[in-house]
Amino acid sequence: MNIILMGPPGAGKGTQAKILSERFHIPQISTGDILRMNVREKTTLGLKAKDYMEKGVLVPDDLVVEMVAERLKSRDCAGGFILDGFPRNVAQAEALERTLEKIGKKIDAVVGIEVEERELVRRLSGRRVCRGCGAVYHVTFNPPVNTDTCDNCGVELYQRDDDKEETIRARLRIYEEETRPVIEYYREKGLYRAVGGIGSMDGITENIVKAIEDRRGYTENPG
Ligand code: AMP
């Protein structure tokens, strides 16, 4: 099952992709996570991507497309994958289609998580991430037991550079201008389904699963 999870920054793509990844035993491919890892480790890719990410603008397509193409060839993607944060513009969507064609795969469903802008800003500006395990908290809605420390592993929490208010606005603008047209791209192909991103985490997961099943007549336990 090959899935794309879409939605603006702060919609909950990462959280939901993790849950779906465990439920369906397929890897989550988060381009943001892979890029952040490269920046941390100061790889050639990381050094090239860093400035774009700090400004909240898109990293050039050729870098990201190549990175995803390599990842999709890995053996753990044989049974499916969940793309989270890719494609971010129509050129990336077209490149993805060509990549998948070469390896004999196709996208089964594209699910978009919808949340209004005011709520996104509220979520992103309060978001804190664990430096150790990557767990995500919110200072008000999902605070850790001890301020600035991860409940799971005790490592320090930090605020992503691009979760500062000014950068959040830039990211949301880029989403509207560059990423929203991708929805139309997949809608025209009959692949797109939207779900609301406000409510309980479990409820949203169930709606995403229903959207996927609706799109491909898929059941978790076929037979
Ligand atoms: P995210 O964690 O998905 O919010 O991504 C964080 C940042 O990584 C974005 O603001 C971009 O600078 C970069 N990024 C992530 N995915 C992509 C992509 N598909 N294309 C271009 N840049 C990306």
Uncertain runs are none
Strand line-up of the largest beta sheet: 2-3-1-4-8
Number of strands: 8
Structural class: alpha/beta
Oligomer: single chain
Major sheet attributes:
5 strands, parallel
What CATH architecture would you give?
3-Layer(aba) Sandwich
**Beginning-to-end CA distance, first to last residue:** 16 Å
According to CATH, the homologous superfamily is: P-loop containing nucleotide triphosphate hydrolases
Query: What is the domain tally?
Result: 1
Q: At the first level of CATH, what is the class? A: Alpha Beta
What is CATH's topology name? Rossmann fold
Structure ligands: adenosine monophosphate
Provide the β-strand percentage band.
5-15%
Helix and strand succession? EHEHHHEHEHEEEHEH
Radius of gyration, CA atoms, in whole angstroms: 17 Å
Name the features.
single chain, 223 residues, alpha/beta, Rossmann fold, 3-stranded antiparallel sheet, 8 strands, binds adenosine monophosphate
Structure, described:
With 223 residues, the protein is α/β, with parallel strands linked by helices. Helix content is 48%, strand content 14%. The protein has one domain: Rossmann fold (3-Layer(aba) Sandwich). The chain has helices at 13-24, 31-40, 44-55, 61-72, 90-102, 117-125, 165-188, 201-216, and strands at 2-6, 28-30, 81-84, 109-114, 127-130, 136-138, 157-158, 192-196. The strands form 2 sheets. The protein has a 5-stranded parallel sheet with strand order 2-3-1-4-8, sandwiched between helices. The chain is globular, with a radius of gyration of 17 Å. The mean pLDDT is 94. Adenosine monophosphate (AMP) binds next to α2 and α3.
